[in-house]
Amino acid sequence: MEKIVIIDTGSSNILSLKRAVEIFNSNVNITTDSQVILSANKIFFPGVGAFKKVMQTLETRKLTETLIKAKEKEIPLFGICLGLQLFFNESEEFGASKGLGLINGNVKMLPKDSKKQEKLKIPNIGWFQLNLNKKFKNKKFSKFINSIDEKNFYYFVHSYFVNPIKKENIVATYNFGGHEIPAIVSKDNLIGCQFHPEKSGKKGLELISNFLKLSV
């Protein structure tokens, strides 16, 4: 049985993710141990809270180097919510803060006004449909993406969003007041969701299952 790791970022609701993963694989380990992380077949990288604070926790636990090594080893790595945002170069949340730099781009605050100049509520909390990006290029995750149906809804709760430099890294977006906001982003062995698949019902669980089925 494959060895699955959930990185303990000290900030996230890890137990709900662990329960979701255990539906498909019981060999799940929540850890901050670099050796355990780097010996895994698949890695989940969740996160809730402030970008800067979690980055400081990662640095204190020497996990920034571990995550960079995991990318170099090409271990499939799934970032969820803030976990996805931390893949990027920097965030403007509470002033500029450096990220892991695994995907080129930055993290910005959600627009306060819709395209029709109506006030938008931030944080954005709710269920949204995805729009697949036809220009996305990453064959490693084709099976993962095949399960996404644009008719289905996924659960979001966030105030900031990822803004990759290369738009072909965007797997899917969602419509927020007329703005197309990146919802799933991927590069090399990395993939991340701005929404919470573990809280998105059957279709969210399907994405977790498909990630676990990826051949390395």
Tell me the number of helical segments per DSSP (H or I, 4 or more residues long): 7
Major sheet details: 8 strands, mixed
| Widest sheet, order of strands | 2-1-3-4-14-13-12-9
Low-confidence stretches: none
Distance between the termini: 14 Å
Domain module count: 1
Annotated CATH architecture: 3-Layer(aba) Sandwich
Gross morphology is globular
CATH class: Alpha Beta
Radius of gyration: 16 Å
CATH topology-level fold name: Rossmann fold
Question: Could you name the key traits of this structure?
Answer:
single chain, Rossmann fold, four-stranded mixed beta sheet, 216 residues, 14 strands, eight-stranded mixed beta sheet, 26% helix, alpha/beta
What does this structure look like?
The protein has one domain (4-213): Rossmann fold (3-Layer(aba) Sandwich), CATH 3.40.50.880. The two termini are 14 Å apart. It is of the alpha/beta class and 216 residues long. The chain has helices spanning 14-22, 34-38, 51-60, 63-72, 82-86, 142-146, 201-213, and strands at residues 4-7, 28-31, 42-47, 77-81, 88-91, 97-98, 103-109, 124-129, 131-132, 153-158, 160-164, 170-176, 179-187, 190-193. The mean pLDDT is 93. It has 7 helices and 14 strands. The chain is globular and about 50 Å long.
